Fold ABC transporter, ATPase subunit.
Amino acid sequence: MAAPLAEVGRAASRRPCGAPLIEFRDLGKRYEFPQGRVVLDGLSGTIGAGEFLIIVGRSGSGKSTLLNLLGGLDRPSSGCVSVDGHSLSALSDRELTLLRRRRIGFIFQAYNLISTLTVSENLLLPLELNGLTGAADTVRRWLDRVGLVGLEEAYPDQLSGGEQQRVAVARALVHEPDLILADEPTGNLDLDHATRVVALLDELCRSSGKTLVMATHSREVAGKADRMLTIHEGRLLEVRE
Ligand SMILES: Nc1ncnc2c1ncn2[C@@H]1O[C@H](COP(=O)(O)OP(=O)(O)OP(=O)(O)O)[C@@H](O)[C@H]1O
């Protein structure tokens, strides 16, 4: 049975390695507007703790929609998702917010850094929201890990695309979530920088046993993913190469 939400905030180390972190069953999503369209149709599966899973699919196939459902950013039209045994549909909006804040790190294509905050301040935010102490040291350590020492006081628009994405990577990981959901994290980067960002993400997640689910157009950046799934006509298929 799942532990109460308040008690599972930082319980990743108790989970046996390889046990499913995410389970989804008969998951469906239909958007009513602008015209009724079924984007996801009866998807079921599991994602193991510590796994690196890539989701590919053509533009508009539903990759972002799936990540949003897995991360509790949107509610499914049918079916259910559970994260570490917590059924997302059973959580109130407040509980869902807490689960997302504590347990999940999001990385988006357009970085989504807060433009009026410096690099350091962008990283401090998730720590402060989670009431974590020792924040200044943690931020310094993460800036070192992603190779951004010296840019602490810079604002996002003073950084290159690759640098901004490394800030976004650090921001998603700084509060030690169990699950990282990355939606086209390299979409704005050339192949060389894209490959480096994915390698960094992979290394950071693997070294700390975090689960990484990444949606991308490009199989070339898939790197060392453990598994690759594709969404085609609303269904999820395993890609074997
Ligand atoms: N909020 C919404 N309201 C209505 N339709 C939506 C909404 N969000 C997405 N869609 C539609 O759902 C389909 C899937 O969109 P989604 O963004 O999940 O695809 P994607 O595979 O991530 O695409 P891309 O690779 O271009 O980012 C698209 O046809 C899109 O127009």
Q: What stands out?
A: Residues 31, 33, 39, 57, 59-65, 184, 217 surround adenosine-5'-triphosphate (CB under 6 Å). Residues 21-238 form a domain with the Rossmann fold fold (CATH 3.40.50.300).
